[in-house]
Amino acid sequence: MRTLKIHLIRHGATDANTKGQYIGCKTDMPLSPEGLNELRALKDNVDYPEIDRLYSSPMLRAKQSGAVLYPNMPIYPVDNLKEYDFGDFEGKTAEELDIDPRFAEWVAGKIPAPNGESNAEFIKRLCVGLYEVVNDMLENNLESGAVIMHGGAMMMLLGACAVPQHKPVEWTADSGQGYSLLVTPSLYHKSGIVEVYDII
Can you state the angle between helices 60-69 and 33-45, rounded to 10 degrees? Predict the structure, then answer.
């Protein structure tokens, strides 16, 4: 039975990560100099898996990260794997938002981000993005691929479809790190479930 290997890797750090800002799909921010240097050091010291194809969120910070970690591979952007739409919270920190009563409701999962996405919409979009990656690999007879994506997106995606089952917050990953998945196409197309078998 054919099994695909898909490696989810978090992009490098941006200035917004350092400042604690919510930066989603409305701000196409590049990696910070520190973030680039950190990824270059990881590239020299981490044995990243060999892959047949490199996929990425279409956002600059993800594509830059892919170019560092897999410099000789073309990048295939997957629009549905872009970061969350934070709406009115975009570019702000939790401290700045504490005075907004909508923020507490959003953190509690009671409302979508104002003028942004709901968690349900975000998860559905991410699952479609993973489906697109799997189908592209099957259509092109590929065995392994890497996806450069956002930390929050990775957490929400794995929280929705991965075994072993964990809450999204338990699927955190530092910059340049992530998780390796086994995807059995027949099972995946029936259930949408993927198996996490290793940590990058």
Answer: 30
Alpha helices in 72-184 (DSSP H): 94-97, 101-107, 119-139, 151-161
When pLDDT is averaged across residues 72-84 and rounded to a whole number, the result is 97
pLDDT classification of 2: cutoffs 50, 70, 90: confident
| Residue at 104 is within a domain | no
Q: Is residue 97 part of a domain?
A: no
In a domain, 112, yes or no: no
pLDDT 10s digits, 99-146: 999 999 999 889 999 999 999 999 999 999 999 999 999 999 999 999
For residue 178, give the CATH number of its domain. 3.40.50.1240
Domain that holds residue 75: 4-87+118-199
Instruction: Look at the chain and report how many structural domains it folds into.
Output: 1
- Whole-structure pTM value: 0.94
CA torsion angle 55 58 63 66 (round to 10): -20
- Collect all residues with Cβ–Cβ distance below 8 Å to 131 and sequence separation of at least 6: 192
